[in-house]
Amino acid sequence: MITDPLLLSIKLAAVVSALLFLIGIPLAGWLSITRLRWKFLIEAIVALPIVLPPTVLGYYILVSISPNSSIGSMYLDVFGSALPFSFPGLVVASVLYSLPFAVQPFLAGFESVDKRLSEAAWTLGASRVKTFLTIVIPSSIPGLITGGVLSFAHTLGEFGVVLLVGGNIPGSTQVVSISIYDQVQALEYEQAGQTSLTLLVFSFFVLSLVYATNRKVWTIWPKNS
Amino acid sequence: MITDPLLLSIKLAAVVSALLFLIGIPLAGWLSITRLRWKFLIEAIVALPIVLPPTVLGYYILVSISPNSSIGSMYLDVFGSALPFSFPGLVVASVLYSLPFAVQPFLAGFESVDKRLSEAAWTLGASRVKTFLTIVIPSSIPGLITGGVLSFAHTLGEFGVVLLVGGNIPGSTQVVSISIYDQVQALEYEQAGQTSLTLLVFSFFVLSLVYATNRKVWTIWPKNS
Amino acid sequence: MAEKLLIDIQKDFPGRQVSIQTELELTPSWTVLFGPSGAGKSTVLRCLAGLETPDDGEICFGNEIWYSKNQKTCVTPQQRGTGFFFQDYALFPHLSVKKNIGYNLTEISKDEKNKRIARMVDIFDLSKLENRNIQSLSGGEKQRVALARTLCRHPRLLLLDEPLSALDNPSRIRLRKELRDLLRQFKIPVILVTHDRTEALSLGDRMIVMNHGTVLQDGPIAEVFSKPNQKTTAGIVGMENVFPGSIREKKDGLAIVEINDNLLEAANFGLDTGPVMVGIRAEDIVIRLARETNSSARNQLRGTIEAVVLEESLVRLTVNCGFSIDALITRESKEEMKLDVSREVTLSVKATAIHLFPH
Amino acid sequence: MAEKLLIDIQKDFPGRQVSIQTELELTPSWTVLFGPSGAGKSTVLRCLAGLETPDDGEICFGNEIWYSKNQKTCVTPQQRGTGFFFQDYALFPHLSVKKNIGYNLTEISKDEKNKRIARMVDIFDLSKLENRNIQSLSGGEKQRVALARTLCRHPRLLLLDEPLSALDNPSRIRLRKELRDLLRQFKIPVILVTHDRTEALSLGDRMIVMNHGTVLQDGPIAEVFSKPNQKTTAGIVGMENVFPGSIREKKDGLAIVEINDNLLEAANFGLDTGPVMVGIRAEDIVIRLARETNSSARNQLRGTIEAVVLEESLVRLTVNCGFSIDALITRESKEEMKLDVSREVTLSVKATAIHLFPH
Amino acid sequence: GTAEIKVAAASSMKLVFEEIAKEFHDENPGIKVKLSFGSSGNFFSQIVHGAPYDVFFSADTNYPRQLVKEGKSLGDTPVALYAIGRIVLWVPDSVGLNVKKEKSATLLNSKIIKIAIANPKHAPYGRAAIEWMNKTGIYSQVKSRFVLGENISQATQFVHTQAAQAGIIARSLVANPEMKSTGSFWEIPTDEHSPIEQGFIILKGTRNPLVAGSFSEFVTGPKGSRILKKYGFNIPTIHGRGLL
Ligand SMILES: Nc1ncnc2c1ncn2[C@@H]1O[C@H](COP(=O)(O)OP(=O)(O)OP(=O)(O)O)[C@@H](O)[C@H]1O
Ligand SMILES: Nc1ncnc2c1ncn2[C@@H]1O[C@H](COP(=O)(O)OP(=O)(O)OP(=O)(O)O)[C@@H](O)[C@H]1O
Ligand SMILES: [Mg+2]
Ligand SMILES: [Mg+2]
Hints:
- The complex is a heteropentamer, with 2 copies of chain A, 2 copies of chain C and 1 copy of chain E.
- By secondary structure, chain A is mostly helical.
- Chain A has a single domain (about 5-220), classed as Orthogonal Bundle (MetI-like fold), CATH 1.10.3720.
- Chain A is built from 11 helices and no strands.
- Chain A has helices at about 5-35, 40-45, 55-65, 70-80, 85-110, 115-125, 130-135, 140-155, 160-165, 175-185, 190-220.
- In chain A, helix 1 packs across helix 10 (about 175-185), helix 3 packs parallel to helix 9 and helix 8 (about 140-155) runs antiparallel to helix 11 (about 190-220).
- Chain A is globular.
- Chain C starts with a strand and ends with a strand.
- Chain C has a 6-stranded mixed beta sheet with strand order 7-8-9-3-10-11, sandwiched between helices.
- Chain C has 2 domains: about 5-235, Rossmann fold (3-Layer(aba) Sandwich), CATH 3.40.50.300; about 240-359, CATH 2.40.50.100.
- By secondary structure, chain E is an alpha/beta fold.
- The longest helix of chain E is centred in the first third of the chain and has 14 residues, at about 15-25.
- The two termini of chain E are about 35 Å apart.
- Chains in contact: A-B, A-C, A-D, A-E, B-C, B-D, B-E, C-D.
- The structure holds adenosine-5'-triphosphate (2 copies) and magnesium ion (MG) (2 copies).
- One adenosine-5'-triphosphate (ATP) sits at the interface of chains D and C.
């Protein structure tokens, strides 16, 4: 079991990013192809969670997943443990909170893919879903990476929501952002500085890696004819 | 003078978004055309602020702009008032914090513009800057809007950084997210719910408007030949 | 009775309308959509592929209703199973040449798939490019890949939007020949958009001439070329003597071609006996009053002048020699030989001036 | 002495190399880069425009060094002031047709700017499309807009990458004629990439034939067409009799053309007196043993056979009538007339078979 | 003219100070009191870096004491107390336990899966809770069930949402009608943990030391004490400066 807050954060961010790919790509994909008149309302709803302060959002999430809410009791019945103050609870909350940071760049990426490529795939018999998976997604790598990076980093630094839904339990919900906060509150500035530095160095390393690889993708596919 | 926290938040978000366009577009533009080998490091640095918990980031920003720091004292000398615990201080902190949410989508947008359009503009004698302004930017509207929306919404919901740098002073730095937080802290759930709802309704309205307009942009420019 | 493709559609654009009404037999034949830039050719093709929804009318493919305004039916592009070649290629930039060609070939076994791709690579001379990425290809190379990709699927109706227009001359001539042969085995109807006369003549059985969004003429290709129904059409297709004929025999590098019971000798560039389209430019026909010998002009036809029309600095003679044929001569020649209606003349044509388009 | 454009560059691609070494006079002349798909034509043009940096060599435009590997110089595209026409248009999708054409026309007054745009709109027949957005244009319409945009700036070197290839036939013919006239006033050197023989012949003064990334032949256009230096070149350019000549006078719809002191009569389609390029297809020349009368073939030249070459089913005769001219006849004709080297013959050509390319 | 003071107070004191400020304003109409609430730890950082508050009412005595050390106190006067907090054990009705009867044993019930407390690392209420549990000897048995709020208000939210089934929270917060109607509490005897002393200082940077002084005197005076008591605080027997 992971007890180090940094590792826990990384695990959380990785799980959340992965889930956001799973949820965000179909959602953004649907938004990019639907001809629904009111799709902009859905786009707006997806972006809404950002405008609430995280702790407040956390409070509302907590209310709606606590065991006496319908969602919470359903979860309790199925999995035998409560959602709040657990790692799965953190995941649910972070996914909700970071959703717009994934969906928005995904959508921007999908919308900039030439419509004719999709049309070509359709006439080659590929279903809309297959076209989306094999043509649109691979042509939107920069957007997907942006979304992935934003949501990964955002989850790493997430604090308010995680604090409220997680309850700061060492080894299960005490992620690194909370532990740094605690250190600052306890006026342990030196320790806080060290933890922050570790987090920054790690993040810098990961982000650099992602961006450097992304760059390479474009070198393999030169843009000049 | 604006005293209502919601109006103050809107003002802050508007100023910050505007500044992020001013700062983020050149930065993302430079990143999109530079052939610098190490540009991915700069991309990583831009994204770094997200990974720190907002209050911790706020703490470090506070330390570095307080009048005992060099930046802070310089500002004090020039403008005659201290940066922290003032509206300009909030702006500085929010810009720093929201920078990646603007720069990333901008960059993804710029990078998806066909290289040949820029080349065409160059051979028509347009400088790199003019090309960027007149060709690349108008061709990346979805990315720009995504960046703008993300940073506007993000600033509206920003809490930790603003709390630390602003100090929750009614009428000058008490933005709506902090006042909702206060209400929740004081268990004034009903009032918090009302303020949240106002904020959500307002944001929903703004976001819908933005997305609906964005949609229209694409209807004016049909993609099929 | 062969099944038919019924097209009767109308598509509105701001300030412009494209409409077409025609019926094509679903036999392995070639229909050419011919017309100048902006005529609406691509629009018609896109409606047939299901990429564009017409604003009115219907499209029936045999018994299948592909589109019907009244019945509110619009079959998806996937279900139509047409092959579509895009004017600007629309190749997948993230896939290699090979993967582009084999895209979505899922119904067949892997072996069969590889075989098909290999055949396409071979036919379109792409062997050196197989694993290249699309962005590094030149314009012509891209076009060949796009053609290969479209044909690889054995579609049941092939829609080609100017497939050869960006190719260089040698490749174009080679592919034009091969395209027909190649498609013969697939036994599918083809609709070809082009604005190249030679391409239309070489490939088309039937021709639909469009201009400003409407159909000007619609009929067998020889008829449209030889008897344009109006001046606009004539201007668009250009004037030509075009006759359906057939190669009777071949000897010593000459092909003996029969047109309406007349035998002509044509230089033979490797065509087989069988039906051909015969084209003779009006300006290539030499008129004389008597038969002559000792000339390299091998084909001599006797006929009577039916019409004399002045055309700018030239004179167009229509001569009946069992079938009508046009000749273009200078005014001076006409004066010198005193040519006029009902005068009997000899037409002579060099074997090399008789153009055979395989059919 | 006119200034020169010196090109001596090499560009490496994975598995392919493009290199060229030549010198062009910076006079208002047309150089044609000719070659099949993938030959490297676009690459050379992009290096000249500064869009691609060569891997070795140098480019000098008069006294200006545009690129030099040794001096580590590479002038930006903006400073070079070349006009570049992109093979795939590269029109700005967010600007109207008019705004595309007038893009970055900042050095001139607004009045002047509008006048220029109006002129371009007129020349390229875009008046109905002026305010349309680019995405709604058809393929050919896009190409015309792109041409107009490039020419609107009066560049000091014009680089055209297949400017007419996607146009329909009537527009292509019209624009081919107009392009030369139009550019004459601008007095700029033009480098044209094409794989269309007629286009090359109509527009080019000089021709550089490329294949597989290297230059095969480089010289005056008539020379390259008439005397290809090797079989590959011959295959690429196609065989033609091409001579520089000039129209002496015009009468009764005929143009009297002088080639090497011989006078020929050609059908005149509105050309003025002055220098022209004269093209006669080898297969259009009729050979007979004696002079003849009463024929619509107006041009008769006496000459001696210099060479007899068998070509597949045909025979190519090279006849010297003061200048060398090739004729293509069937084997049967050769046998019947017993043609052989040093035999004297009469060549006759119809006035309509003499093709004049304005120069 | 009107004078203005800025008062920084712990967020758990929001209701109390809003009432105090109102009464103070009624008494001194010329003085405007601007209240800022937040975590005492954050106020500490902010004051160190020049935050423009006049008086700082902390939720403990540690942060103000540190500030005195940093030389941020007006005239270097030491921390003065203004209230003593109390903790209670609060259980939502839905759990179905009678906390008033079972007292500390409530926490050992298997229905109590999570126990909300404030983070003992920096929140005095949390520290007091731990101390009490140690004293009653249940600490080691319940320790694994803790969920930690950043401050006492958050701990309260945990139980109030019933995500946690019991909470050791401030007496002042259960007076809130929201809490009253949804659960019941048992007051933890004050002798089972050291007193939760809450101190304040007048800050050196104050522009208006007189007004700041009169406001803090109002808080510690009879009217302030009455309000504090009403919200469940005990009043320190000696307010005298220099006590700490
Ligand atoms: N989305 C659109 N909006 C407005 N007008 C359109 C749209 N699509 C096509 N058009 C117009 O309809 C007409 C027909 O276009 P289409 O692309 O079918 O021409 P085309 O015959 O294929 O020409 P080309 O040979 O140049 O490709 C053109 O005038 C074009 O401008
Ligand atoms: N970025 C690149 N990477 C790899 N190979 C390239 C790249 N750009 C061009 N090439 C190759 O260089 C060769 C020359 O390409 P170029 O585009 O100059 O041909 P072209 O003569 O213009 O042909 P076309 O008439 O088909 O446009 C081609 O084989 C092409 O595949
Ligand atoms: Mg078209
Ligand atoms: Mg090219």
